Structure formats: C-alpha cells, structure tokens
Amino acid sequence: MTSHFMPLNANRHRYLKLLKHRGYRHAGAFAQSDVLLAEFGRASTHYPIVFSSHASGSIRPVVLLSTDGMSNAFVDSAGRWLNTYVPLVIRLHPFAIARVPGNDQPMVCIDMSSELLSHDDGSPLFDMNGDPAPALDLAMQQLNEVEEMLRTTEAFCRALQKLNLLVPLARINHDNLSRLELDNLHYVDERALDRLGDAALCVLRNQGWLTPLYAHRISLMQIDRLPPALSGREDWLPGEHQPRWEGMRA
C-alpha cells in the first residue's frame, strides 16, 4: 500500500471520519521503521536498532523489520503484528507530523490512502464548526508527545555524530544483512565507545543517554533473529500476546 500523506485541513477534511483500529496492513511494506529514543529499551529486545543517514548529513534511528529490505516480516496477510512491540510511528497511523522550514509548530498530516478513513462511518475528525473533534484531539495530543520525543532523539543523534561513534553497518558480516542496502546504515562502534574520554562520558551520562546507547548495542544481537519476509507464511511468531495500544508509553 502506497502512503499518501497530506496536511490535515478543516475545510478540505471537514467530513472525514476515523474508523477503529484494524491492524497493521499499512506497514506490510516497511522494511524499516523510525524509532524514538524513548523506545530503545523495549524495541531493543525485539529488533535491531541502527542509524540511517541522509544527504543532509543528519541521522535517525530505525529498526530493521526483515532481511530482504523490501517488506515487513512482522506483519502477516491479515494485518496482524507478529511481535509484542510495535513502533510508535506505526501505531500513530494514519496520522504523522511534519515540519515546515521556518516554523517551529509541527504540522499534522494524514494518510489519505488509509483504510481507517471514511466519509460514512467512524468518529468525526472535526465538529460542525470545523474545530477538532475528540478523535482528532487525542491524535494531536499523541503527536505533540511524539514531537517532544523526536527533539530528544535528534539531540542524541547529533551527539553520536559529534563524538564520531558511528561506523558503517556493512562492517558486520552476517548472512541476515547480505540482502540489505547497507550504504546509509550505521551502528555505534564498541571500540570508539571505549576510547571516549571522561568528559564525553560525563555528557552522555548527564543527558541520560548511556542507557539507550547500550540498548542500541544490545539490540544488534537481534540481527540473529531477524526473520525473512513472510511471503504469506504465518509460522514465525515469537510470542503469543498480540500488541495493544498503550497510549504514548514507549
């Protein structure tokens, strides 16, 4: 399914309604997913966390979701998530936040291709006056919380770059990485971490960043457990508990 995000507008989307959660079919083609710093603790026990670089020079943390680089091995044909933790950005569907250059206020966007949107059934996003209805109020509250988490995540990533802790993921020789495009993926090098001086370690500790940093390092062991694309099979299920919406707790 191809996403079609656009800014949410009270005039254009006045009569749009939100249906109840129907699973994660929308994420079936995601070979990676953004992940926030607050999620590292839980995500690290299920997925490899690595860092994706961009032409702008910035990096962001992502979790790897399959070994083929083209699909999500944790979503089955019925849209069920086959693991016990779902990244926040995927749980927020069909909403997302976007930033406008020169504007500190994030923009609320919506995926118009989502099967959760309807003009007939569901909870309205806007009331008759064009003001946010309860369903949209809740989504906006969650997005604001994510925006705060995102700022912390970005500061953490800038610190990793400044301290030269990142090296190419291609240095890890593993069969489960052989089919992935690794050019823009990185991880924290243990030797570079060991070489950090007391002042740099103090900064990381004072910011509360040592714990997620080591969670990232531990998450690399999940490369061993990274499943291939399902291709319709449903036999890979690491736990019997289905994920639940848990507010914005990571």
Chart the SSEs and their pairings:
Elements (H helix, E strand, L loop, with lengths): L4 E3 L9 E2 L13 E3 L5 H4 L5 E5 L5 E6 L23 H4 L3 E6 L2 E9 L5 E2 L4 E2 L9 H29 L3 E3 L16 E4 L1 H5 L3 H9 L3 H10 L31
Description:
The chain is globular, with a radius of gyration of 19 Å. It has helices at 40-43, 88-91, 134-162, 190-194, 198-206, 210-219; strands at residues 5-7, 17-18, 32-34, 49-53, 59-64, 95-100, 103-111, 117-118, 123-124, 166-168, 185-188. With 250 residues, it is α+β, with helices and mostly antiparallel strands. 24% of the residues lie in helices and 18% in strands. Strand 6 and strand 7 (103-111) form a beta hairpin. 27% of the residues are buried. It has six helices and eleven strands. The strands form three sheets. It has a five-stranded antiparallel sheet. A three-stranded antiparallel sheet has the order 1-7-6, covered by helices on one side. The chain has one domain (5-225).
